[in-house]
Design brief:
Layout lengths: L1 H27 L4 H8 L8 H8 L7 H14 L13 H36 L4 H14 L3 H15 L18 H38 L2 H8 L4 H13 L1 H14 L4 H6 L5 H10 L3 H29 L1 H4 L4
InterPro entries: MetI-like, MetI-like_sf
Membrane topology: Multi-pass membrane protein
Protein name: ABC-type dipeptide/oligopeptide/nickel transport system, permease component
Length: 326
């Protein structure tokens, strides 16, 4: 219980720090988002500038601490402000459009990559002296060096342009009616290439991590004792070696799931996928500070919560944590 309470306290403190930094850092950046909007929209009277600043939460007439208090109050209410590039649409509504696409694509691809990489990593560690294991590790070390965007462009060229099996980009066919089977199949077909890009590029890291962890565990004395007792090799491989070797990977997997909400920036740009990554790129281009601020906060919260869940998972799987390391 003390471990759980300590983790809750650290989570709340980290959330407070993330929220505070997320408020002050954008206000230290050069430029005035309200003035930029005024410059883009002709015909707006100058006296409307202060009203627009108030709407964006950057009212120059209020002290900074008062703005911070209003920001915290708005966060509690779920108010993330008004998007500049999509004025006057609220930021929360803008995120509601992009987040499901990113979570669906990046989340699924990350989970597939983790499970495939972990299974292959266990296999190559268990058969580490074979030529197949050496070839597999070398192949994925080579593939891991490919940049996401380069691999995406390669897949687009061969599987969408030269051989038109998959669409060139976007998330679905615009002409189809949402909610129909054809629309669902279109979404799946459009997601295959970007998901394949993410899986191929990231699977090598999981394979290498699991392989190294597994080799270290296989050198432990309790593995030798289990083999000397004549336990089945499958049981030693799964319950003794793999179960302990996977513990360090859980934290990395949780962090990866946390960063899922940030989207694969380059991947979504290459495939014109309407997720959070592409939205963040567009927000930076248009100096949409409220939207950038909301996306950064969303990513921070997701990573912190994912790490907290990983700590709880390790607490359940590792008795040493429950016993205080005794």
């Amino acid at each position: 219980m003390a471990y759980f309470a300590r983790k809750i306290g650290l989570l709340l403190f980290a959330l407070f720090v993330a929220v505070t930094l997320n408020f002050f850092i954008p206000r230290m950046m050069p430029g005035d988002p309200a003035q930029d909007l005024m410059d883009k929209m002709q015909g707006i009277p100058l006296e409307s500038l202060e009203a627009i600043k108030a709407a964006f939460g950057v009212d120059s007439t209020d002290p900074l601490l008062l703005q911070y208090g209003k920001y915290l109050l708005n966060l509690i209410k779920g108010d993330l402000g008004i998007s500049i590039s999509r004025f006057p649409t609220p930021v929360g509504r803008v995120l509601q459009v992009a987040v499901p696409w990113t979570v669906g694509l990046m989340g699924t691809a990350t989970i597939i990559s983790f499970f495939l990489g972990t299974i292959i990593g266990i296999g190559v560690a268990w058969k580490r002296n074979t030529k197949l294991a050496s070839f597999t590790v070398g192949l994925f070390i080579f593939v891991r060096s490919f940049p996401y965007f380069w691999l995406g462009l390669l897949l687009i060229y061969f599987l969408a342009f030269r051989i038109p099996i998959f669409p060139l980009g976007n998330a679905y066919t615009p002409q189809l009616e949402r909610g129909t089977l054809e629309f669902f199949l279109s979404v799946v077909k459009h997601a295959i290439l970007p998901a394949l890009t993410i899986v191929i590029s990231s699977m090598g890291a999981w394979i290498l991590t699991m392989r190294n962890n597994m080799i270290n565990v296989l050198a432990e004395d309790y593995i030798t004792v289990a083999e000397a007792k004549g336990l089945p090799l499958r049981r030693i491989k799964t319950l003794y070696a793999a179960k302990n070797a996977i513990l360090p990977s859980i934290t990395g997997f949780a962090m990866s799931l946390g960063f899922v909400v940030g989207g694969g920036l380059l991947t979504e740009m290459v495939f014109s996928y309407p997720g959070v990554g592409l939205m963040l790129y567009q927000a930076v281009q248009s100096k949409d500070y409220p939207l950038m601020q909301a996306i950064f906060l969303f990513i921070s919260v997701a990573v912190l919560v994912a790490n907290f869940i990983a700590d709880i998972a390790v607490l359940i799987l590792d008795p040493r944590v429950r016993d205080g390391g005794k």
